[in-house]
Structure formats: C-alpha cells, structure tokens
Specification:
Layout lengths: L1 H18 L11 H12 L5 H30 L2 H38 L6 H24 L2 H4 L3 H30 L5 H31 L4 H24 L6 H14 L7 H8 L4 H12 L1 H17 L2 H23 L7 H4 L4
Helix pairs in contact: 1-3, 1-7, 2-3, 2-12, 3-8, 7-8, 7-12, 7-13, 7-14, 8-9, 8-10, 9-10, 9-11, 9-14, 11-12, 13-14
GO molecular function, one term: transmembrane transporter activity
Pfam families: MFS_1
Function: Probable anion transporter.
Length: 359
C-alpha cells in the first residue's frame, strides 16, 4: 500500500513536470528570450500584451494536453516514454517551421547560394566563405556580449523589480505545480485520477484568463492609460489573487474539498495576468536588450524550481502542515513581490548603453 501510494504520487509529479514547457532545461532555456526579442522588435506597444499572451499562453495549452495524455502514456509505455514522445513532437514541430521558412524564403536563399557558388567551380571557395562566415559569426557573438551594458542593468531599480517579481511568481508557480497533486490527494482525500484531472484546471483557467487579460491591457494602453500603470495593475492582480485564495485555502473554514480546489484554481488562473504585466515590461523598457533582460530575470526565476520545491518538502516533513510548508511562503513572496513591483517597476524606455561610463 505504501509503495503503491508513493509510486502513484511520484508518477503524478513526473508527468506534471515533464509536460510543462515553462520549466525549461539548457536547450529550451533560450526559447523565451528568443520569443521576447522577436516580439520586442516587431510588435507595437498597443498589441504587445496580446502577442505575449499568444506566445507564452501556449505554455498553458501544452500543460493541459500534457496532463491529459501523459498518464495513459506512462501507464501503458512507462514513464520514460513521456520524454521520448514529447521530445519527438518537439523535433517534428521544429522541422515543420523550418520547412515553412524554406517555402517562404527558399527562392531568396537559392539566389544567394547561387551567387556564392558561381565564384568557384569546384566548391572550394564557397566552402572557405562558409568557414569564414562561421568564424565571423562567432567573433560577432563574442563582441556583442562584451558590448552588453551589464552594469547598467543592475543599477536600474526597474530591473531589480522585474528580477524580484519573477522570483516571487516562480516560487508560487513551481511549488504549486509540484505539490498540489499531493495536496489534493493527501489533504483533500482525492484519488489519483481525481487529482490528475484537477491538476488540469489551473492551466485551463489560465488559458481563459489570458484571453481576457491581454485585450484588457492593450485596450487600456490604446486609450491613453500610462503603460507603467497598466503593467502595475496587471501584475498586482497576478500576485494578490493567488495570495488571497491561498489564504482562504490555508485556514480551516470547514469548506468542502471542491470549493478549496475552486479557490486554488481561480488564484493560479488569475496569476496569468503576469503575461500582461511582468512579461511585457522587458520589452517596454528596452527593445534592444529585452531578450537579455528576460534571460536575467528568468534565470533568477528558475531558482525556486530548485530551492522552493525542496524547501516545501522539508517543511512538510518537519511541520506536517500544508499551510506552513506550501501556502505561507508563497503568500509571503506574492505580497512582498506586489509591494516591490508597485514601488519600483517602470515601463519607461531606458537607454542602458548611455548609462555606462565611457572608458
């Protein structure tokens, strides 16, 4: 019985963490910054929230599909199969976009390649040019990294506000992602199947809230509301909502289990307002360095995925209290993150390059 319960709990955590793209490894870690750079350079301010919602809202869509399909895959093919199947789907997705690029730009690339190959009949010259191009690209990359005004970033209060907000939001996200299935099972006495279905509700709710929050933010900006004020409103909703619902869930009000599930689902779904708050601010303050700024905040935001999950388990073993181990730390970070965000966040464009002293 004990082994079966532990195995079921572990499986629920394995497929939950395996299916969410928002917890990237080294390879996937570059994708959020790449997407942010494209949005910053190509999408106007009045449409930015919707663009971010479409791109990063896909995480919730993937979460729903992952949480639905992973359990039968694990049951029939073993837990390793989740990684193989989802990894293969990622490769197919990438190849699909590569073929789309070839269809749209194939002729132009062919003309360029034809021009290069005509300079040499045996292909040696074009090969040398390719080698020189690769070497030049590496040098350009090294030079571009040296030119990044790292010091100016960390002198900005707005950047520090983004860093701390990202950390706080990730703490609540990662700890709930990892421990709520166990909370539903052990504290609310839901069976594994019910806990698995309930785990689909937060990302499903996030998809609904995202479709509301993004047009709401863009319409406010289009109607002349200050961008900083819009980002602060959205991020405050994203932090205060889950904190409030966690408070209600952590105290003994004699509520039935499904009402607690509804509270937690609503709070986590409303945290998707962050896509129109924090996740747009990197692009607001600097189109040129938006991807690097997201890389900085996202790196700090990954820390709770390591520390927060382990600390929650340690506190749970020590106190045997879900309120103290899971909810209280998240509430603390949500509320302090709100205070820091309201005090120091800004969407005013900043020229970080001019902030660096001339050498």
């Amino acid at each position: 019985m004990v082994f079966g319960h532990c195995y079921s709990s572990c499986c629920s955590r394995v497929y939950a963490r395996a299916c969410l793209v928002k917890d990237p490894g080294i390879g996937e870690g570059v994708s959020p910054s790449a997407a942010t750079d494209l949005i910053a350079r190509s999408i106007p301010l009045q449409e930015r929230s919707r663009a971010v919602a479409v791109v990063f809202g896909g995480l919730s869509f993937g979460s729903v599909l992952g949480l639905l399909f992973a359990p039968p895959i694990i049951q029939n093919l073993g837990w390793e199969s989740v990684f193989y199947i989802f990894g293969l789907l990622g490769i197919v997705w990438c190849l699909g976009f590569e073929s789309l690029k070839v269809q749209r730009f194939g002729d132009k690339e062919g003309i360029l390649n034809l021009g290069q190959s005509s300079t040499g009949s045996d292909g040696l010259i074009s090969s040398a040019m390719s080698s020189e191009s690769s070497h030049s690209s590496l040098e350009d990359l090294q030079n571009s990294l040296k030119d990044v005004p790292w010091g100016a970033f960390f002198k900005s209060k707005a950047v520090w506000a983004m860093i701390y907000a990202h950390f706080c939001g990730s703490w609540g996200h990662y700890t709930c992602l990892s421990w709520l299935p166990t909370f539903f099972s052990e504290e609310l006495n839901l069976n594994l199947t019910e806990a698995a279905w309930v785990s689909v509700l937060p990302p499903l709710g996030s998809m609904i809230i995202t479709s509301i929050a993004a047009p709401f933010a863009d319409n406010l900006i289009s109607n002349g509301v200050d961008t900083t004020k819009v980002r602060k409103i959205c991020q405050t909703i994203a932090f205060v909502s889950p904190a409030t619902f966690m408070m209600l869930s952590s105290v003994d009000l004699g509520l039935p289990p499904w009402e607690i599930v509804a509270f937690l689902t609503s709070g986590l779904a409303l945290s998707s307002f962050a896509l129109s708050g924090l996740y747009c601010t990197h692009q607001d303050i600097s189109r040129e360095y938006a991807s690097i700024l997201l890389g900085i905040t996202n790196t700090v935001g990954a820390v709770p995925g390591i520390v927060g999950i382990a600390l929650t388990g340690f506190l749970l073993d020590s106190t045997h209290s879900w309120s103290i181990s899971l909810f209280v730390p998240s509430i603390f970070f949500y509320l302090t993150g709100t205070a820091v965000w309201l005090a120091f966040a800004s969407s005013e464009p900043q020229d970080f390059s001019k902030s660096e002293p001339e050498s």
